[in-house]
């Protein structure tokens, strides 16, 4: 465990989990208000939460990032992990993730299983933070900054006009950078970029997310480079995920051919995935997500690795209030992370689970000092957002 992750404290950080349960929720959009994007139509925002109860009755929550697309896979993984967690005693919540990974290495390396382990670690941190009356960032070594620059992430839409309208609204709301998604093919994406960017006000920056270049039918490396060159020509802050996540050689080729920074891979589930990508020269910006990569301890290791290789770190953040706050606490507690993804799309599960909404002003997001993550799950919330299978972020 890196020394920076386990700070000296007069408080007892030990814990003994006595119960764990998966909690699946859905915020279904009313007819006509669904979100349209390159992958199809989003009919609901799903969340796969994991609740851990400690021996003193304190509960904590974590979220599995891939649950927005595959929530139904989480309960079975939780059941498989239960014997390795319940009634075990840990000196520190930051040791939980490694304990679980070491005992499930034959089947939990990466993917949604890694995200579930990360959710458990987050839930344990949340519970211990609540018990001690301190925010989670204090358990992660302390806040390196009180606020962090946040760019607006969203940019969904099936027409150029929808994307443009969204981008302009985010700039008007105080964001300095906006990220919008590619269209399904490279030529349409190039036309989109050339239409949206000239309409942005002076000083505004933009990012193009190629969505693993692009979604279910990846572009060729040559097409990704064509799009990236237009991004560079118009001054993009970076070009995101131009290739499928496992295509390390493709990332390296795209990065070598472009002047604009290249970023990825938000869905990577292990520190080793990022090590391979970074050491291959595949990215200028690494994009771990606490809810995918295995928890805050793993996220900090990626950030340490990136810093050693002079690669920036900007998190991926796309989920309920649990994912938002887990990433926020983790990012402000690491000196190498200075920019944050802030999804501005409508998601009732973001606001409903927050005790205190992080304050956004002048392009910066301030982390609340509420104990734990500053989130809550009540029976009323579970009744209000019953899980609806077959919805969520389904990619056509």
Entry keywords:
single chain, 396 residues, alpha/beta, Enolase-like, domain 1, TIM Barrel, 2 domains, 10-stranded mixed beta sheet, 16 helices, disordered N terminus
Average predicted local confidence, pLDDT: 95
Shape: globular
pLDDT < 50 stretches = 1-10
What class, by secondary structure content? alpha/beta
Query: Number of DSSP helices?
Result: 16
- Looking at the structure, the CATH topology of the largest domain is TIM Barrel
CATH homolog superfamily of the largest domain: Enolase-like C-terminal domain
Number of domains: 2
Largest β sheet strand count, sense and barrel closure? 10 strands, mixed
CATH architecture label of the largest domain: Alpha-Beta Barrel
Q: What is the β-strand count?
A: 15
Terminal CA distance: 41 Å
Question: What would you say about this model in short?
Answer:
The chain is α/β, with parallel strands linked by helices. 38% of the residues lie in helices and 18% in strands.
Question: Could you describe the 3D structure shown?
Answer:
The protein has 396 residues and is an alpha/beta fold. It folds into two domains: 3-137, Enolase-like, N-terminal domain (Enolase-like, domain 1, 2-Layer Sandwich), CATH 3.30.390.10; 139-376, Enolase-like C-terminal domain (TIM Barrel), CATH 3.20.20. 38% of the residues lie in helices and 18% in strands. It contains 16 helices and 15 strands. It has helices at residues 67-70, 74-85, 96-103, 111-132, 136-139, 160-172, 186-196, 211-214, 221-233, 248-257, 271-279, 290-293, 296-308, 321-332, 348-352, 379-384; strands at 17-28, 35-37, 40-42, 44-54, 59-64, 147-153, 177-181, 205-209, 238-240, 262-264, 285-286, 312-313, 339-343, 359-361, 364-366. Strands 6, 7, 8, 9, 10, 11, 12, 13, 14 and 15 form a ten-stranded mixed sheet that branches. A three-stranded antiparallel sheet has the order 1-4-5, sandwiched between helices. A two-stranded antiparallel sheet has the order 2-3. Helix 7 (186-196) links the parallel strand 7 (177-181) and strand 8. Helix 2 packs across helix 4 (111-132) and helix 3 (96-103) packs antiparallel against helix 4 (111-132). The protein is globular and about 60 Å long. Residues 1-10 have low confidence and may be disordered.
């Amino acid at each position: 465990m890196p020394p920076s992750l386990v700070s000296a404290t007069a408080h007892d950080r030990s814990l003994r989990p006595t119960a764990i349960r998966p909690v699946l929720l859905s915020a279904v959009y009313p007819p006509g208000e669904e979100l349209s994007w390159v992958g199809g139509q989003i009919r609901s925002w799903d969340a796969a939460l994991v609740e851990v109860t400690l021996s003193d009755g304190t509960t904590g929550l974590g979220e599995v990032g891939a649950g927005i697309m595959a929530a139904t896979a989480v309960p079975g993984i939780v059941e498989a992990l239960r014997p390795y967690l319940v009634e075990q005693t840990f000196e520190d919540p930051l040791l939980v993730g490694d304990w679980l990974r070491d005992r499930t290495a034959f089947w939990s390396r990466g993917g949604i299983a890694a995200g579930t382990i990360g959710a458990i670690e987050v839930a344990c941190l949340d519970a211990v933070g609540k018990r001690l009356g301190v925010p989670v960032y204090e358990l992660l070594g302390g806040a390196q900054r009180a606020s962090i620059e946040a760019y607006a992430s969203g940019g969904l839409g099936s027409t150029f006009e929808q994307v443009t309208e969204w981008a302009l609204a985010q700039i008007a709301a105080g964001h300095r950078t906006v990220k919008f998604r590619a269209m399904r093919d490279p030529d349409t994406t190039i036309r989109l970029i050339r239409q949206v960017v000239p309409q942005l006000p002076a000083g505004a920056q933009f990012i193009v997310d190629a969505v693993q270049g692009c979604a279910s039918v990846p572009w060729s490396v040559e097409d990704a480079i064509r799009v990236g060159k237009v991004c560079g020509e118009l001054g993009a802050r970076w070009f995101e995920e131009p290739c499928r996540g496992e295509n390390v050689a493709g990332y390296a080729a795209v990065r070598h051919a472009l002047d604009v920074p290249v970023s990825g891979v938000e869905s990577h589930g292990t520190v080793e995935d990022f090590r391979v990508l970074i050491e291959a020269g595949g990215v200028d910006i690494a994009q771990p997500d606490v809810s995918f990569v295995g928890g805050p301890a793993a996220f900090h290791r990626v950030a340490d690795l990136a810093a050693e290789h002079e690669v920036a770190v900007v998190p991926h953040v796309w989920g309920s209030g649990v994912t938002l706050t887990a990433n926020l606490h983790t990012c402000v507690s690491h000196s190498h992370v200075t920019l944050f993804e802030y999804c501005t799309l409508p998601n009732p599960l973001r606001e409903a689970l927050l005790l205190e909404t992080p304050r956004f002003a002048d392009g910066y997001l301030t982390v609340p000092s509420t104990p734990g993550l500053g989130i809550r799950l009540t029976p009323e919330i579970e009744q209000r957002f019953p899980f609806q299978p077959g919805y969520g972020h389904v990619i056509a």
